[in-house]
Design brief:
The protein is 26% helix and 27% strand. The protein has 13 helices and 29 strands. It is globular, with a radius of gyration of 23 Å. 46% of the residues are buried.
Length: 504
Amino acid sequence: MRLVIYQTSDLHGYVYPTNYVKEQPLGILKIGSYIKEDEVNYDASLKIDCGDLVQGSALTHYLYKHDVKKNPIIEGMENIKYDIYVLGNHEFNYGLDYLNKSYAPVSDKVINANIEGLEFETKPYKIFDYNGFKVGCMGLTTGFIPNWEQECNIKDLKFNDPVEAYGKYEQELKANCDFIIVCYHGGFEKSIEDNMTPTEALTKENQGSELLEKFDSIDMILSGHQHRSFITKINNVICSQPLNNGQNFTKIVIDTESKKIEYKLVEVKDLKIEIDKNLLNIFEEEEGKLQVYLDQEIGEFDKDILVDDLFEIRLKGHPFINFLHQVQLEKSGADFSELSIFDSTIGFKKIVSIRDVLINYPYPNTLKVLKVKGKKIKEAMEKSATYFVVENGEVKVNVSFLKPKVQHYNYDTFGGMTYEIDLNREFGNRVVSIKKDNVDIDLEKYYTIVMNNYRATNTAIYPSYEGAEVVKEINLDISEVIIDYIQTKKKVNVIEKSNYKIKY
């Protein structure tokens, strides 16, 4: 018989083919419509989602804020008849109540071998029998979540090592299965070409390569989390990861008799398919309410601060960056502000709606204020300054921020100060000036600096903040902080001049 496996991951609540500004080739509606039409060509199908499903879009923000009884995203996945769900790290962003409400109705399909303490019951693995060909699917989630997530959102949960978790159940799977699939919300920390060369710091955030190195029982790893796009064989094991937001998905066909396997990534942009009406109907009511909510005008700027070129504004500064620093500094009362801009950034027209804010800031990050010495702030600035390199007189993005995973969000700018960076100098010695109120900061003095909770806690990227004292937490989504700021001001005066200069 021919078994088809469809895998999605990191859908982030993108349902319609749009980012709520313009139409884009992505989302659950197109993927689900394709699957429903395509699966009839095979004897059996297995549908797997590898996490980060119910957070990350304007729709998920709306659903969380309006406390809907049923999560239509899960309802939509059930209409497509998904067989397996794996929890991603972003599933915890809205807190445990939202997580429980979303996944409890499908708890019998949630596979989870390494998270203890969930309110709903899960299984570490499930075995599917296709005419005697038994496929075992184990669910694993990156154990790195406590490094990012607010403590209140993961209270009483224990995140065990995924590699150790697989080892715990390996013999059971081998004894009862013909084919073992690891469904992992995590990625690969080493090269997918030779599986030997580390491509990132070995923090155990991504342990796909470690799973391959320690176990020879795995036939397939369906991964997520890194927002990469690949399907390949590593040591004769099929390894796949689709892009975020439903831009593509994995399709694998196994002939259970000959054991021949075909695999590919299906690009949503290439799909010529009508949207399934039954699937569409699930979302129409909430989508209609969402559109009304998004179009609410909340205030205005004295001029447009639109963003055309993200590289250019990271290099030279921009009124949009100035505005975000204004918001963070005023809300926190900190001496300094630190932030990144996201790839979704488009800036603001003069009149601002809720839609505009959520497009520019789609993540439910909150703010933390840390107390650190001036020299630690400089260290963080030096880390950020490694984002740029100069080649033949041209400024480019350092390849380490592009491969194996695009990480523009790990380049930060700083507010509440003026500073200068010289790209002609070596890494670690590029920050040539940091001034507050026209006076050099004291490297031995303690200052307060506000940043999002991800940056404050993910010290693997910015180690200068490791162990820093948290003096204030603002447990409100930054998007809400921005909305409140604009609503309170009613009219925001734009700061045009950049507070930093990058020489090259």
